[in-house]
Write a structure and sequence with these properties.
Blueprint lengths: L2 E5 L3 H13 L3 E6 L2 H11 L3 E5 L8 H12 L3 E5 L4 H8 L6 E3 L4 H34 L3 E5 L5 E4 L1 H7 L3 H4 L13 H12 L4 E9 L5 E12 L5 E10 L1 H23 L4 H26 L4 H4 L4 E6 L4 E4 L3 H5 L3 H4 L10 H21 L5 E9 L5 E12 L5 E10 L1 H46 L8 H25 L7 E3 L1 H15 L4 E6 L7 E3 L1 H18 L4 E12 L1 H6 L6 E10 L6 H4 L19 H11 L3 E7 L3 E9 L2 H11 L9 E5 L3 H13 L3 E5 L2 H11 L3 E7 L7 H11 L5 E5 L8 H5 L4 E4 L4 H12 L3
Parallel strand pairs: 1-2, 1-3, 3-4, 4-5, 17-19, 23-24, 23-25, 25-26, 26-27
Antiparallel strand pairs: 6-7, 6-10, 8-9, 9-10, 11-12, 11-15, 13-14, 14-15, 16-18, 19-20, 20-22, 21-22
Length: 802
């Protein structure tokens, strides 16, 4: 309910407006007929809005009255008018009204205009307050701040910068930045500005500013290039910090050192006097170093910008300092860590390791004398959500001037990615070793089976079917042939069986296998094909590709005894350096991706880790050899391809195979892929329980210009959405999460806002296990693992939907 003042000299009109306002549940604080009473009443009642008749009787008309009310009390005014001429309307516009209503007005027009005016006034007020805060911050900061255009001309500078030069900001704006630096520094500034225009966005360098009085002021410049959405250079944003004290301290230190050496050379025989002078010079040097330290404290923000966590603890093992980067890595704010003991931050095992290592080092220091040395340990820290992350931590002792121990200094780096890559390497090496061993055994075993089948076949040829040994020899012969089939599977896994490769369109091979699957899979399993129209050509063995697909089909059949969906998809993809960073064996380039999904029982993570190992199977004895997927693995690797498995218990399984595109196909694909991905400025909410996935998505989206909010599960996402509903344009929602999964979260989001735009993110196919969720109200789908261009294109398409 809003409080409204009506200024109308026609009493009947005023009463009608009052009745309409009360019907809309607004409160009318007063009705006055002239401008003088309107100003007085506005001062006394402070209404939220004034409805003002333009043509008032009395000394002041409505326009003059509105101007006084707006300027004196900052109250929004909406004009009431019947037929005003152009001159009156032009005058009215100069008073900045928040709307016009033509009398007589309808209830709908009155309601809409009032709500719009109140909302706009509140927004204007907040904008003014925000601008005032930032203006105060910039103008009161100690460091100088300047903005240059593409020609190096100053377009803005703050008070600190103009004070350094000795000119007002009005005098400086419009001047070339080269006119503000000393002649000796012009070359440096010219080179650095050129770097910004060529795309090197950030830099730090030193130049000497030149004041109006000729005084040189050394400054450290932190420069940041300004680029438009199209990537074109727009100018430079520069912060300057006065380093006069540091330079003076360095010069004093150098002079003291030079003077000390000169005196030692000249007066070596006067030992007593020389020692006295040395003591004095050492004191001067310490004073100079202290001055330098105080000056360099101004640049502490460099530490604050580091991705690694910088921290210090006292002898009581309580944290005395921690850098802001801790929030990105562990989820805690620096304030939450201050005065907290180390034992609460580390796992018990890591705390004992750190304590034991530091005590051993202290004992060595005691025996050999204090010395500068650091320890590097891999320590497990608790995240705020209770999970554990391994950080490589370098620990050093903090000492006072007398070398007394006063605390510990640490630098911790997240090595989760590195450990994941090492695990990939170990897994790859294990599979290579198993493949080599299996291939060698298979080769020798194949020779033995050849002897068995050969001699059995000879014996069979020498006997007729009435011979009592004939049936037994037939059993031996069939068993040996079955063994040979197993050997061929092992050879496929170990890549000893070379593919008979030729240029192939995988769509055609899939369509051929599709016919066979109707005879292989039960009728209650629905087989679907989603094949790309423009699929690139690959170099592949059609028979081996057929074997891979049939192996997947058999496994899916066993995973869906009650029926389900079996889906095969194809598409062209480009695997970039970011994908290779998470999959070491992959070469960046253009690939054809074949995705095979089912809606079966799925697998646990520990099963997925071993799914491609030969002879590993979860089936009962006699139901499977465990060679089907290992053979598929070997076949894909022999084609220089890449295979991954994504599965969740109770949801289903997805296999993804990437086969390199023939070189002749790549040129056109490169041209297509060269287009810049779309960008935006909206606020997006990313919901995923994997922190590395959230950070990767944030990296892609912030680079594209978006503002990001993040949540680790569905419950947290709902809380953030309720608080920021009006500002969030899109929710990117993971499907499988603890506490509350994507399906439940989507349902609750739609209850909060039926028009919410939600993009589902999943490793499963959009036509596989995720289809039901998409049909429940999601606006789109993005495949994991993310690719920047595809992800940003999908986001833009969903945001631009009506």
């Amino acid at each position: 309910m809003s409080r409204i003042l009506i200024v109308e000299d026609d009493e009947l009109t005023a009463k009608l407006i009052e009745a309409d306002l009360e019907q809309m549940e607004h409160k009318v604080v007063a009705k006055v007929p002239n401008g003088e009473e309107a100003v007085t009443t506005a001062d006394e009642t402070k209404p939220d809005l004034v409805l003002m008749d333009i043509l008032l009787e009395g000394e002041m008309d409505g326009i003059e009255t509105a101007d006084q009310i707006r300027s004196r009390f900052d109250i929004p005014v909406v004009y009431l008018t019947t037929h005003a001429d152009k001159e009156i309307l032009d005058r009215a516009k100069q008073t900045g009204p928040y709307g016009y209503l033509e009398k007589p007005t309808t209830l709908l027009e009155l309601s809409g205009t009032i709500e719009t005016a109140l909302h706009k006034h509140e927004a204007d007020k907040r904008l003014r307050e925000s601008e005032e805060r930032y203006r105060t911050l910039v103008e009161t900061m100690n460091e100088g701040l300047g903005v240059l255009d593409v020609n190096g001309t100053l377009t803005y500078c703050n008070e600190a910068f103009s004070r350094t030069i000795g000119c007002s900001s009005e005098e400086l704006i419009g001047q070339s930045a080269l006119d503000c630096v000393h002649e000796d520094s012009k070359g440096t500034l010219t080179r650095e500005l050129s770097k910004r225009s060529k795309g090197q966005s950030r830099a730090q360098y030193e130049v000497d500013l030149i004041g109006r009085d000729g005084r040189r002021v050394p400054v450290l410049v932190s420069a940041q290039g300004i680029y438009g959405r199209d990537g074109r250079y727009k100018g430079t944003f520069a912060v300057t910090a006065d380093i006069t004290e540091r330079k003076e301290a360095e010069e004093a230190l150098k002079n003291a050192h030079d003077e000390l050496e000169q005196r030692v050379d000249e007066r070596t025989v006067e030992l007593r006097e020389t020692n006295a002078r040395l003591r004095k010079e050492i004191t001067d040097r310490k004073n100079a170093e202290e001055a330098l330290r105080k000056s360099e404290e101004k640049y502490r923000f460099l530490t604050e910008q580091m991705h690694d966590i910088v921290w210090t603890v006292g002898l009581d093992m309580k944290t005395t300092y921690v850098s802001p980067s801790i929030e990105k890595v562990l989820g805690f704010t620096p304030e939450e860590r201050l005065d907290q003991t180390v034992s609460r931050q580390l796992t018990p095992e890591s705390f004992e390791l750190a304590k034991r290592s530091l005590l051993e080092e202290i004992e060595l220091d005691t025996e050999d004398g204090a010395r500068d040395k650091s320890l590097t340990l891999e320590l497990d820290f608790f995240r705020k959500d209770g999970s554990i992350v391994c950080l490589e931590s370098t620990l050093s002792f903090l000492r006072d001037e007398d070398l007394n121990l006063i605390g510990i200094y640490g630098l911790s780096r997240d090595i989760t990615d590195r450990n994941d890559l090492e695990e990939q390497l170990r897994s790859s090496q294990k599979m290579e070793a198993v493949g080599t061993l299996a291939g060698g055994i298979a080769h020798d075993f194949n020779n033995l089976l050849q002897v068995v089948t050969g001699y059995t076949e000879i014996l069979l040829s020498q006997k007729d079917s009435t011979n009592p040994d004939y049936e037994d020899l037939g059993i031996i012969f069939r068993a040996a042939n079955q063994g040979a089939e197993l050997v061929r599977s092992i050879l496929a896994f170990s890549r000893k069986a070379e593919p008979n490769a030729r240029p192939v369109n995988l769509n055609r091979e899939i369509e051929q296998v599709h016919k066979m699957m109707y005879r292989t899979l039960p009728r209650m399993i629905n087989i679907e094909l989603h094949l790309a129209d423009d699929l690139k050509i690959v170099n592949a063995d059609p028979a081996q590709m057929e074997q891979v697909l049939l192996n997947f089909a058999v496994n899916s059949r066993d995973a869906m005894p009650g029926g389900g969906r079996f889906l095969i998809e194809t598409q062209n993809v480009f695997l970039d350096d970011e994908y290779r960073r998470r999959n070491l064996e992959v070469k960046p380039g253009h690939y054809v991706r074949m995705t095979v999904s089912d809606t079966g029982c799925g697998m646990a993570p520990e099963v997925v880790e071993r799914i491609f190992e030969p002879f590993y199977t979860t089936k009962k004895v006699g139901e499977g050899t465990g060679l089907g997927l290992s053979a598929a693995f070997g076949i894909v690797k022999s084609h220089d391809g890449h295979i991954t498995c994504y599965s969740e218990p109770g949801v289903g399984t997805t296999f993804r195979i990437d086969i390199p595109v023939l070189e002749a196909e790549i040129a056109s694909a490169v041209e297509e892929d060269g287009e810049a991905p779309p960008s935006g400025t909206e606020t997006l909410l990313v919901v995923d329980d994997e922190e590395l996935i959230r950070e990767l998505a944030m990296r892609y989206l912030i680079q594209a210009g978006y503002k990001i909010l993040m949540a680790g599960n569905g419950v947290e996402a709902l809380e953030i959405y309720r608080e920021n509903q009006s500002g969030i344009s899109l929710v990117i929602l993971d499907l499988i999460m603890p506490e509350m999964g994507g399906r439940e979260c989507l349902k609750d989001l739609l209850e909060i806002n039926p028009n919410v735009k939600v993009l589902i993110a999943s490793g499963f196919s959009p036509d596989g296990p995720t289809k039901e969720t998409l049909e429940a109200g999601a606006k789109g789908f993005v495949q994991k693992p993310f690719r920047a261009k595809g992800m940003l294109t999908t986001i833009r398409q969903v945001l631009d939907q009506d």
